[in-house]
Amino acid sequence: MTPHVDFSTLLDVFSELIVDKLSQRLSGPGREGSKMKKRLLTVEEAAHYLGRTKEALQHMIAAGKLPTVKADRRVFLDIKDLDLWIDGSKF
Predict the structure, then answer these.
(1) What is the pLDDT of residues 27-38, one digit of tens each?
(2) DSSP the chain
(3) Is residue 81 pLDDT above 60, yes or no?
């Protein structure tokens, strides 16, 4: 004899599993809740990230210490490059 399976209950369980999987993916590494973490930062944001002034960061860029990403006339810094600079500055 086959056990009776309530389709509605099965659908609810399946839906909950899908929601759990999506929640895990959306809140995984590099994400804050359901919001994706920014990778490109403006000069001002990058300066704040490094705890430096905007002018100090502009000097670092001009000296070639940090690479930039240029989109039209706008200048961005890749957060991965900022993290590499931090790691390379440790002693």
Answers:
(1) 666 555 546 788
(2) -PPP--HHHHHHHHHHHHHHHHHHHHTSTTEETTEEPPSEEEHHHHHHHHT--HHHHHHHHHTTSS--EEETTEEEEEHHHHHHHHHHT--
(3) yes
